[in-house]
Amino acid sequence: MEISGIRRSYERAALKREDLPEDPYVLFESWLQTAVDEQLSDPTGMVVATVDSEGRPSLRSVLLKKFDHDGFVFFTNLGSRKAQQIAGNPNVCLSFPWYCLERQVHIQGVASKISTAEVIKYFLSRPKDSQIGAWVSHQSSVISARSVLEAKFFELKQKFSNGEVPVPSFWGGYRVKPTSIEFWQGGKNRLHDRFLYTDNNDGTWKIERLAP
Questions:
Q1: Are 83 and 131 in contact, with CB atoms under 8 Å apart?
Q2: What is d(CA 211, CA 132) in angstroms, rounded to the nearest whole number?
Q3: 114 with 173: CB under 8 angstroms?
Q4: How many whole angstroms separate alpha carbon 105 and alpha carbon 75?
Q5: Which of 12, 17, 190, 209 is catalytic?
Q6: Selection from 69, 67, 50 nearest residue 58 by Cα
């Protein structure tokens, strides 16, 4: 299979320093809103990168569920590979690959567990089948067949048919507090626009243009 000739020119938009807000969250919200308005599949989908104790990286896709000036929030099984690696090294990266918009956002930051109250609030907002799904899967563990999951799901669906689904003790969320946020806008002739916001630790951000 020959793939070296697969390419396209990025000419949809440009990113200029004079158009950038001083607050990266303002630009992120604008770009996310565009992804929603353009009806991209999973506009809140992001890739989370962690490393294990030997420095080997892992990637997986999750959904962003909240963001504000305190950081970016996602939820997961606390026994999962990502959770175990975060426990050993809380430095993570997030990436939003909005390829159809010729845009990417890359975030470096530190992950920490969110409060129990926040976990409960979000868990109760989920569809009931999703709540049950959280109980079924011991994420990242080896299973013999899909039928094991389906049987457990049916069992728990019967168990919780007449009442609320409690929040599993092994399920929670993380907030990633950014130390830097990079905005990438595809450009003609591979002269992409890249701007890096770096946290000054005083409520302000340094903004630098990066070579493509």
A1: no
A2: 47
A3: yes
A4: 20
A5: 190
A6: 50
Annotation marks residue 56 as catalytic:
no
Judged against a pLDDT cut of 90, whether residue 63 lies above it is answered with yes
SS3 sequence of the chain: CCCCCCCCCCCCCCCCHHHCCCCHHHHHHHHHHHHHHCCCCCCCEEEEEEECCCCCEEEEEEECCEEECCEEEEEEECCCHHHHHHHHCCEEEEEEEEHHHCEEEEEEEEEEECCHHHHHHHHHHCCHHHHHHHHHCCCCCCCCCHHHHHHHHHHHHHHCCCCCCCCCCCEEEEEEEEEEEEEEECCHHHCCEEEEEEECCCCCEEEEEECC
Q: What is the pLDDT of residues 157-168, one digit of tens each?
A: 999 998 899 999
**Based on C-alpha coordinates, what's the Rg of the chain?**
20
Summarised one tens digit per residue, pLDDT across range 72-108 is 999 999 999 999 999 999 999 999 999 999 999 999 9
Q: What are the backbone angles phi and psi of residue 204, rounded to the nearest 5°?
A: -120, 170
CB-based contact 200:206 (threshold 8 Å): yes
CB-facing half-sphere around the CA of 188: CA atoms within 13 A: 4
Decide: 64 and 47 in contact? Cβ < 8 Å. no
